[in-house]
Amino acid sequence: MAKAKKKAAKKKAIKRTAKKAVARPAKKKAAPVAKKVASPKFTVRTAMEIMATFVDSVGLTAKVAAALAAENVNILAGTGYSASGPRQKAIFTLIVDDLAKAERALDRIGAEEIQDSSVILVETENKVGALERIAKLIADAGIMIYYFYSTTSTGKMASCVIRTADDKKAIKVLRNG
Is 110 helix (H, G, I), strand (E, B) or coil? Predict the structure, then answer.
């Protein structure tokens, strides 16, 4: 008899559970809310870039830096590298705060060639996707990017130097973007 009571109690429990399931539909899980990520803000302007070529040697970077410092020239952005070949050459590409003083300083320490050209200087928030946004705006306008280099300065902002096939149009696109 005890077995029969247990069986009857089990059946009632199953029926109650089934009724509850029918009476209360399962809660729908809310769709994950996509976080709207704000586009990084940036400013854009033209800048002059100096490209100086030297015969490569040990200590050349220190020599270039010392020559610019002696003239009180601040380097805002730059790259330097050695190009291999029969005559080792080193090329420095710099954005500085005083072009004329920088050119004189580099000439004084033996630059074989000094060229300056206009580039785009973009100051942007240092956030994921910042370069992507800038490059996409330029690409969507059908403008070829020849090269770029960038760095962060304070961790909050980044400087990006860009040379394009049409800097004037690229600047207009970026300012309207």
Answer: coil
Q: How many CA atoms lie within 13 A of 73 on its CB side?
A: 23
The Cβ-side half-sphere exposure at 142, using a 13 Å CA radius, reads 0
Q: At CB < 8 A and 24+ separation, what contacts does 167-170 make?
A: 167/46, 167/118, 167/119, 167/120, 169/141, 169/143, 170/120, 170/138, 170/141, 170/143
The Cα 169–Cα 81 span in angstroms is 30
Residue 94: count of CB within 10 angstroms of its CB: 23
Does the pTM surpass 0.90? The reply is no
Decide: 52 and 111 in contact? Cβ < 8 Å: yes
CB 157 within 8 A of CB 125: yes
pLDDT digits (tens, 9 = 90+) for 124-168: 988 888 999 999 999 999 999 999 998 886 678 888 999 999 999
**Alpha carbon distance 95, 102 (integer Å):** 10
If you ran DSSP here, which 8-state letter would residue 138 be given?
A: H
Question: How many other CB atoms sit within 10 Å of the CB of residue 77?
Answer: 19
Helix-helix angle 60-70:99-108, to 10 degrees: 130
